[in-house]
Here is the input.
Amino acid sequence: MADNSTSIDLPNSLNLSPHLSAQKYFYVCTLTVLAWDTLVLTPRSYRLGRTKAWPALKALYYFLQIWVLSDFVVTGAMFFSTSVLQDPDCRRFWPYEPICTAILLFAASTVHVIRVTAIYDHARRIRGLLLGLLFVQGVVTAVCCGFYRSVHLLDGQGCIAGPRGNQSWVGIYWLAPTILYATTFTLALKRSLKTLEAKRLTPWRLMLRDNLNLYGAVLLVNLANVFFYFIMTPTDTTDPIKTIVTSMAGVLTATMSMRIILGVKGSLENGGSFSSSGSGGTSGASGTLSGTGVQRGRGGLTYTIGDIHSQSKNAGAPRGAKEEAVWDGDKNSDDAPCRDAKVTLPIVREDESDKEASTVGVQVTVDQQVEYDEAPRRR
Here is the structure.
């Protein structure tokens, strides 16, 4: 019986090892995430660009937006090209990916340093710690760039950079920024938990309010990449398994850092401020005057016009009497406020003595003088 089975010779572009095929699929996912995130953030990028000031976070935002595209789009074009040759094309191209990614990581880490330092009110201890980690990251990634080489693939399988000889220790290239991201995530989480003392929130609302999900996403993807570098065992020196997660780690680190910038409430000057409901911050006294009375925003106390007048007449009462407020503008003389006069109502709290009366008051505009001292007319 004749053997009808035939062997098909696949071109090198399709004759891929399992790990190389998985990396190509994973890179497609990375480019999809990058394209989608770029489209989603375009309106917000436009609104941010219309602001006049150019603080450091705004400049870093646009740098990351441009650099991440130039890094991974160009690298992806070389990775999926079927016409490039390993020698000399890939040998000349391999420094591009590790150097560009190192610059990208340094810019993203700078965003984290600036932002976390700002939410701690630029404390010297926090700033010194994060700047030290940033400096170590810059030195480590710069040194490790020299220990990357082009992975020896077949002609037509594309170009990709990887650790020389698949040495695991080159993974410190990613370990250094991962330590920094773990530190910033811990500090951001600790700062957020302090606000729970003033106002209780569910973990979900707390996470979304303070962008803890963004810090956590950056940390998780970099941890996964570090695990691949130090744990996964390649089959040979041409196995690219250690760099499978590298592209996704770089893209997510950049895009999540950009979203951290967009999540800052208010101005981006000096890294922005940490403003949250229930943060325990103090607010100035405020009040509103209506036809019925004055209400203070802080304590929720309400004073009617009649109460204010009666309290002002009892200003000379003994100190043992309870005095809540005095209206300096109510005088039993010709100096009484005329129409459109403005007076100040000082607020004296129960926990304050007579000598320590609060200078905080509510400004009152009197549109019409009312003679309270006159006896009511009989009908």
